[in-house]
Amino acid sequence: MKSAIKKGGLIFMGLLLTIIIIGQFTMKDDDTASVDVVSETVLVPGGHSVGVRMDVKGVLIVGLEEIETADGKKVNPGIQAGLQIGDMILEIDGTKVYKAEEVQALVNKIQGDVKLKVKRKSQKLDINLTPVVSKDDNLYKLGVWVKDKTAGIGTLTYYNPVNQSFGALGHPIVDPETGSILSVDKGQLLQAQVQSIQEGTAGTPGEIRGVFYEADSPLGGLEKNSSYGVFGNAYHPIENPLYTKPLVVGRQDQIEKGKAYILTTLDDNKLERFEIEIEKINHQSEPADKGMVIKVTDKRLLEKSGGIVQGMSGSPIIQNNRIIGAVTHVFVNNPQKGYGIFIEWMLRASDS
Protein backbone atom coordinates (compact mmCIF):
# COMPACT_ATOMS: atom_id res chain seq x y z
CA MET A 1 0.00 0.00 0.00
CA LYS A 2 1.28 3.43 -0.86
CA SER A 3 1.67 6.18 1.71
CA ALA A 4 1.59 9.94 1.61
CA ILE A 5 2.86 12.66 3.92
CA LYS A 6 1.77 16.22 4.60
CA LYS A 7 3.62 19.04 6.33
CA GLY A 8 2.99 18.76 10.04
CA GLY A 9 1.05 15.52 9.72
CA LEU A 10 1.18 11.91 8.72
CA ILE A 11 -0.96 9.77 6.47
CA PHE A 12 -0.16 6.06 6.81
CA MET A 13 -1.84 4.02 4.11
CA GLY A 14 -1.34 0.47 5.29
CA LEU A 15 -4.44 -0.88 6.89
CA LEU A 16 -3.98 1.70 9.66
CA LEU A 17 -5.44 5.02 8.53
CA THR A 18 -4.28 8.36 9.85
CA ILE A 19 -6.79 10.71 11.41
CA ILE A 20 -7.24 13.74 9.18
CA ILE A 21 -10.67 15.09 10.11
CA ILE A 22 -12.76 12.30 11.60
CA GLY A 23 -10.12 9.62 11.33
CA GLN A 24 -8.83 6.81 9.13
CA PHE A 25 -5.00 6.04 9.23
CA THR A 26 14.72 -11.55 17.55
CA MET A 27 14.63 -13.48 19.81
CA LYS A 28 14.86 -16.87 18.17
CA ASP A 29 13.45 -19.66 20.29
CA ASP A 30 13.55 -23.29 19.34
CA ASP A 31 10.33 -24.62 17.87
CA THR A 32 9.49 -26.77 20.88
CA ALA A 33 9.70 -23.89 23.34
CA SER A 34 7.54 -21.72 21.09
CA VAL A 35 4.86 -24.40 20.77
CA ASP A 36 4.77 -25.01 24.53
CA VAL A 37 4.19 -21.34 25.32
CA VAL A 38 1.58 -20.78 22.63
CA SER A 39 -0.38 -23.97 23.35
CA GLU A 40 -1.08 -22.88 26.92
CA THR A 41 -2.33 -19.43 26.01
CA VAL A 42 -5.99 -18.40 25.91
CA LEU A 43 -7.08 -15.02 24.62
CA VAL A 44 -10.23 -12.93 24.38
CA PRO A 45 -10.56 -12.31 20.62
CA GLY A 46 -10.81 -8.71 19.47
CA GLY A 47 -12.52 -7.30 16.41
CA HIS A 48 -13.26 -3.98 18.10
CA SER A 49 -12.58 -0.82 16.11
CA VAL A 50 -9.90 1.10 18.00
CA GLY A 51 -8.03 4.36 17.76
CA VAL A 52 -4.26 4.39 18.13
CA ARG A 53 -2.73 7.63 19.37
CA MET A 54 1.04 7.63 19.73
CA ASP A 55 3.75 10.07 20.66
CA VAL A 56 6.96 9.26 18.80
CA LYS A 57 10.10 8.78 20.88
CA GLY A 58 12.29 11.69 19.85
CA VAL A 59 11.52 13.93 16.87
CA LEU A 60 11.37 12.32 13.44
CA ILE A 61 12.76 14.10 10.37
CA VAL A 62 10.16 13.67 7.61
CA GLY A 63 11.48 16.24 5.15
CA LEU A 64 14.44 18.47 4.27
CA GLU A 65 14.01 21.96 2.81
CA GLU A 66 16.06 24.90 1.63
CA ILE A 67 16.02 28.07 3.73
CA GLU A 68 16.25 31.47 2.05
CA THR A 69 18.52 33.76 4.05
CA ALA A 70 18.43 37.56 4.32
CA ASP A 71 21.04 37.93 1.54
CA GLY A 72 18.91 35.86 -0.86
CA LYS A 73 20.92 32.64 -0.68
CA LYS A 74 19.13 29.31 -0.43
CA VAL A 75 20.79 26.75 1.80
CA ASN A 76 19.86 23.57 3.59
CA PRO A 77 21.85 23.20 6.82
CA GLY A 78 20.42 19.74 7.44
CA ILE A 79 21.63 18.27 4.15
CA GLN A 80 25.01 19.98 4.49
CA ALA A 81 25.48 18.42 7.93
CA GLY A 82 24.50 14.95 6.67
CA LEU A 83 20.99 14.60 8.12
CA GLN A 84 18.64 12.21 6.34
CA ILE A 85 14.91 11.71 6.15
CA GLY A 86 14.05 9.09 8.76
CA ASP A 87 16.64 10.31 11.29
CA MET A 88 15.33 10.77 14.82
CA ILE A 89 16.58 13.83 16.72
CA LEU A 90 17.08 12.78 20.34
CA GLU A 91 19.14 15.66 21.80
CA ILE A 92 20.28 19.18 20.95
CA ASP A 93 23.45 20.27 22.78
CA GLY A 94 22.82 17.61 25.42
CA THR A 95 19.17 18.54 26.01
CA LYS A 96 16.68 15.79 25.18
CA VAL A 97 13.86 16.77 22.83
CA TYR A 98 10.48 15.08 22.58
CA LYS A 99 8.33 17.54 20.66
CA ALA A 100 8.68 19.36 17.36
CA GLU A 101 8.28 22.78 18.97
CA GLU A 102 11.14 22.03 21.38
CA VAL A 103 13.55 21.81 18.45
CA GLN A 104 12.75 25.27 17.18
CA ALA A 105 12.80 26.76 20.68
CA LEU A 106 16.22 25.33 21.54
CA VAL A 107 17.80 26.24 18.21
CA ASN A 108 16.63 29.85 18.60
CA LYS A 109 17.79 29.97 22.19
CA ILE A 110 21.30 28.82 21.21
CA GLN A 111 21.49 31.02 18.07
CA GLY A 112 24.63 29.35 16.80
CA ASP A 113 26.25 26.00 16.06
CA VAL A 114 24.43 23.03 17.58
CA LYS A 115 25.36 19.41 18.24
CA LEU A 116 22.59 16.92 17.50
CA LYS A 117 22.36 13.38 18.82
CA VAL A 118 20.51 11.46 16.12
CA LYS A 119 19.24 7.91 15.87
CA ARG A 120 19.52 6.42 12.37
CA LYS A 121 18.08 2.91 12.26
CA SER A 122 20.07 1.11 15.00
CA GLN A 123 22.91 3.65 15.16
CA LYS A 124 23.27 6.78 17.28
CA LEU A 125 25.23 9.59 15.65
CA ASP A 126 26.58 12.99 16.75
CA ILE A 127 26.06 15.59 14.03
CA ASN A 128 27.31 19.19 14.14
CA LEU A 129 25.11 21.69 12.35
CA THR A 130 25.07 25.44 11.75
CA PRO A 131 21.50 26.81 11.60
CA VAL A 132 20.69 29.75 9.35
CA VAL A 133 18.35 32.71 9.86
CA SER A 134 15.30 32.57 7.62
CA LYS A 135 14.40 35.66 5.60
CA ASP A 136 10.69 34.90 6.08
CA ASP A 137 10.42 35.05 9.87
CA ASN A 138 13.94 35.89 11.12
CA LEU A 139 14.15 32.56 13.00
CA TYR A 140 17.12 30.20 13.18
CA LYS A 141 16.31 27.01 11.28
CA LEU A 142 17.85 23.59 10.61
CA GLY A 143 16.18 23.05 7.25
CA VAL A 144 14.16 20.03 8.41
CA TRP A 145 10.50 19.11 8.71
CA VAL A 146 9.86 17.15 11.89
CA LYS A 147 6.95 15.45 13.62
CA ASP A 148 6.36 13.86 16.99
CA LYS A 149 2.85 12.34 16.88
CA THR A 150 0.70 10.01 14.84
CA ALA A 151 -2.83 8.68 15.18
CA GLY A 152 -5.13 6.36 13.31
CA ILE A 153 -7.81 3.69 13.32
CA GLY A 154 -7.33 -0.07 13.23
CA THR A 155 -8.70 -3.21 14.88
CA LEU A 156 -7.97 -4.93 18.20
CA THR A 157 -6.66 -8.48 17.76
CA TYR A 158 -6.73 -9.87 21.28
CA TYR A 159 -6.86 -9.20 25.00
CA ASN A 160 -4.96 -11.51 27.35
CA PRO A 161 -6.96 -11.84 30.59
CA VAL A 162 -4.00 -13.38 32.45
CA ASN A 163 -1.66 -10.38 32.23
CA GLN A 164 -4.05 -7.69 30.89
CA SER A 165 -1.98 -7.23 27.73
CA PHE A 166 -3.39 -6.55 24.27
CA GLY A 167 -2.27 -6.69 20.65
CA ALA A 168 -3.63 -4.85 17.62
CA LEU A 169 -3.05 -4.13 13.91
CA GLY A 170 -0.78 -7.09 13.11
CA HIS A 171 1.70 -4.74 11.41
CA PRO A 172 3.76 -1.74 12.52
CA ILE A 173 2.97 1.94 12.40
CA VAL A 174 5.61 3.30 10.04
CA ASP A 175 6.62 6.66 8.70
CA PRO A 176 5.31 6.68 5.12
CA GLU A 177 8.22 8.69 3.73
CA THR A 178 10.99 6.53 5.14
CA GLY A 179 9.30 3.23 5.89
CA SER A 180 10.96 3.21 9.32
CA ILE A 181 9.06 1.80 12.29
CA LEU A 182 8.20 4.57 14.73
CA SER A 183 9.36 4.14 18.34
CA VAL A 184 6.72 4.66 21.01
CA ASP A 185 7.35 7.31 23.63
CA LYS A 186 3.86 7.10 25.03
CA GLY A 187 0.45 6.44 23.60
CA GLN A 188 -3.00 5.04 24.16
CA LEU A 189 -5.49 2.63 22.66
CA LEU A 190 -8.88 4.32 22.40
CA GLN A 191 -12.41 3.24 21.61
CA ALA A 192 -13.40 4.22 18.07
CA GLN A 193 -16.72 4.67 16.32
CA VAL A 194 -17.15 3.67 12.69
CA GLN A 195 -18.77 6.48 10.71
CA SER A 196 -18.80 5.08 7.17
CA ILE A 197 -17.23 2.48 4.89
CA GLN A 198 -15.81 3.13 1.46
CA GLU A 199 -16.06 -0.01 -0.65
CA GLY A 200 -12.87 -1.40 -2.09
CA THR A 201 -12.48 -2.10 -5.79
CA ALA A 202 -9.66 -3.50 -7.91
CA GLY A 203 -6.79 -1.01 -7.79
CA THR A 204 -8.47 1.19 -5.16
CA PRO A 205 -8.48 -0.11 -1.58
CA GLY A 206 -11.54 0.74 0.46
CA GLU A 207 -11.41 2.17 3.94
CA ILE A 208 -13.18 2.36 7.26
CA ARG A 209 -13.77 5.94 8.29
CA GLY A 210 -14.21 6.52 11.97
CA VAL A 211 -13.57 8.82 14.85
CA PHE A 212 -12.24 8.63 18.38
CA TYR A 213 -12.25 11.25 21.08
CA GLU A 214 -9.46 11.93 23.54
CA ALA A 215 -12.04 12.57 26.26
CA ASP A 216 -13.34 8.99 26.01
CA SER A 217 -12.10 6.47 28.53
CA PRO A 218 -9.00 4.88 26.92
CA LEU A 219 -8.75 1.12 26.63
CA GLY A 220 -5.07 0.92 27.52
CA GLY A 221 -1.57 2.28 27.25
CA LEU A 222 0.72 1.59 24.29
CA GLU A 223 4.18 0.25 25.06
CA LYS A 224 5.51 -1.22 21.82
CA ASN A 225 5.25 -0.68 18.07
CA SER A 226 6.78 -3.66 16.26
CA SER A 227 6.84 -5.35 12.88
CA TYR A 228 3.98 -7.57 14.08
CA GLY A 229 1.62 -5.06 15.66
CA VAL A 230 1.22 -2.60 18.50
CA PHE A 231 1.10 -3.85 22.06
CA GLY A 232 0.41 -2.60 25.56
CA ASN A 233 -1.57 -3.14 28.75
CA ALA A 234 -5.30 -2.63 29.15
CA TYR A 235 -6.64 -0.36 31.89
CA HIS A 236 -9.61 -2.67 32.46
CA PRO A 237 -10.84 -6.05 31.13
CA ILE A 238 -11.96 -6.10 27.49
CA GLU A 239 -14.91 -8.33 26.59
CA ASN A 240 -16.15 -9.75 23.32
CA PRO A 241 -19.95 -10.06 23.00
CA LEU A 242 -19.60 -12.97 20.56
CA TYR A 243 -17.38 -15.08 22.84
CA THR A 244 -18.17 -15.29 26.54
CA LYS A 245 -15.03 -17.34 27.19
CA PRO A 246 -11.45 -16.87 25.93
CA LEU A 247 -10.29 -18.96 22.99
CA VAL A 248 -7.26 -21.22 22.88
CA VAL A 249 -4.44 -20.05 20.60
CA GLY A 250 -3.99 -22.13 17.46
CA ARG A 251 -0.50 -23.10 16.33
CA GLN A 252 0.60 -23.11 12.70
CA ASP A 253 0.36 -26.90 12.52
CA GLN A 254 -3.27 -26.71 13.64
CA ILE A 255 -4.33 -24.37 10.84
CA GLU A 256 -6.11 -25.86 7.84
CA LYS A 257 -6.99 -24.64 4.40
CA GLY A 258 -10.69 -23.93 4.16
CA LYS A 259 -13.36 -22.16 6.16
CA ALA A 260 -12.50 -19.71 8.93
CA TYR A 261 -13.86 -16.42 10.28
CA ILE A 262 -12.71 -12.91 10.93
CA LEU A 263 -14.12 -10.59 13.57
CA THR A 264 -14.43 -6.91 12.75
CA THR A 265 -16.62 -3.86 13.38
CA LEU A 266 -18.57 -2.19 10.59
CA ASP A 267 -22.13 -0.82 10.69
CA ASP A 268 -23.50 0.72 13.90
CA ASN A 269 -20.28 -0.17 15.72
CA LYS A 270 -21.48 -3.75 15.93
CA LEU A 271 -18.78 -6.38 16.23
CA GLU A 272 -19.59 -9.16 13.74
CA ARG A 273 -18.25 -12.48 12.53
CA PHE A 274 -17.70 -12.96 8.78
CA GLU A 275 -16.80 -16.13 6.90
CA ILE A 276 -13.53 -16.35 4.98
CA GLU A 277 -11.50 -19.07 3.33
CA ILE A 278 -7.84 -19.76 4.07
CA GLU A 279 -6.39 -20.42 0.60
CA LYS A 280 -2.70 -20.78 1.44
CA ILE A 281 -0.59 -21.40 4.54
CA ASN A 282 3.06 -20.32 4.48
CA HIS A 283 4.60 -22.27 7.34
CA GLN A 284 7.32 -20.17 8.97
CA SER A 285 10.15 -21.05 11.35
CA GLU A 286 10.83 -17.40 12.15
CA PRO A 287 8.48 -14.40 12.54
CA ALA A 288 7.11 -12.90 9.32
CA ASP A 289 3.91 -11.07 8.50
CA LYS A 290 2.44 -12.99 5.53
CA GLY A 291 1.64 -16.36 7.01
CA MET A 292 -1.72 -16.93 5.34
CA VAL A 293 -3.55 -15.91 2.19
CA ILE A 294 -7.23 -15.40 2.97
CA LYS A 295 -10.29 -14.73 0.84
CA VAL A 296 -13.55 -13.13 1.99
CA THR A 297 -16.49 -15.39 1.08
CA ASP A 298 -19.20 -13.86 3.28
CA LYS A 299 -21.78 -12.15 1.04
CA ARG A 300 -22.68 -9.65 3.77
CA LEU A 301 -19.11 -8.39 4.06
CA LEU A 302 -18.66 -8.30 0.30
CA GLU A 303 -21.81 -6.21 -0.06
CA LYS A 304 -20.78 -3.80 2.71
CA SER A 305 -17.11 -3.28 1.91
CA GLY A 306 -16.16 -5.25 -1.19
CA GLY A 307 -13.89 -7.38 0.99
CA ILE A 308 -10.92 -6.35 3.11
CA VAL A 309 -10.50 -2.60 3.55
CA GLN A 310 -8.09 -0.25 5.29
CA GLY A 311 -8.91 -0.13 8.97
CA MET A 312 -9.49 -3.89 9.28
CA SER A 313 -5.84 -4.61 10.08
CA GLY A 314 -5.71 -6.57 13.29
CA SER A 315 -9.08 -8.28 12.78
CA PRO A 316 -8.63 -11.69 14.46
CA ILE A 317 -8.86 -14.86 12.39
CA ILE A 318 -10.76 -17.73 14.05
CA GLN A 319 -10.74 -21.37 12.93
CA ASN A 320 -12.07 -24.43 14.77
CA ASN A 321 -12.80 -22.21 17.75
CA ARG A 322 -9.16 -21.18 18.03
CA ILE A 323 -7.62 -17.76 17.46
CA ILE A 324 -4.96 -18.36 14.81
CA GLY A 325 -3.95 -14.95 13.48
CA ALA A 326 -4.93 -11.49 12.29
CA VAL A 327 -5.62 -9.71 9.01
CA THR A 328 -2.72 -7.48 7.96
CA HIS A 329 -2.90 -6.47 4.29
CA VAL A 330 -5.31 -6.38 1.38
CA PHE A 331 -4.47 -7.32 -2.21
CA VAL A 332 -4.77 -3.96 -3.99
CA ASN A 333 -5.98 -5.52 -7.22
CA ASN A 334 -8.35 -7.94 -5.50
CA PRO A 335 -9.92 -6.62 -2.28
CA GLN A 336 -11.57 -9.98 -1.63
CA LYS A 337 -8.11 -11.33 -0.73
CA GLY A 338 -5.45 -10.41 1.77
CA TYR A 339 -2.72 -11.66 4.08
CA GLY A 340 -2.85 -12.80 7.67
CA ILE A 341 -0.15 -13.07 10.33
CA PHE A 342 0.13 -16.06 12.67
CA ILE A 343 -0.99 -15.17 16.19
CA GLU A 344 2.13 -16.79 17.66
CA TRP A 345 4.32 -14.09 16.09
CA MET A 346 2.22 -11.36 17.65
CA LEU A 347 2.46 -13.03 21.05
CA ARG A 348 6.22 -13.45 20.73
CA ALA A 349 6.61 -9.77 19.80
CA SER A 350 4.49 -8.78 22.79
CA ASP A 351 6.48 -11.01 25.19
CA SER A 352 9.85 -9.81 23.95
From TrEMBL:
Q: What class of enzyme is it?
A: hydrolase
Q: Where is the PDZ domain?
A: 47-122
Domain Peptidase S55, which positions?
A: 123-352
- What is the residue range of the signal peptide feature? none
Q: Does the keyword Transmembrane helix apply?
A: yes
Pfam families named in the record: PDZ_6 (PF17820), Peptidase_S55 (PF05580)
Q: Which PROSITE patterns match?
A: PDZ, SPOIVB
Record's keyword annotation contains GTP-binding: no
Q: What is this protein's name?
A: SpoIVB peptidase
One GO molecular-function annotation for this sequence? hydrolase activity
- State which residue ranges cross the membrane: 9-27
Q: Which Enzyme Commission number(s) are listed? A: 3.4.21.116
Q: Which UniProt keywords apply?
A: Hydrolase, Membrane, Transmembrane, Transmembrane helix
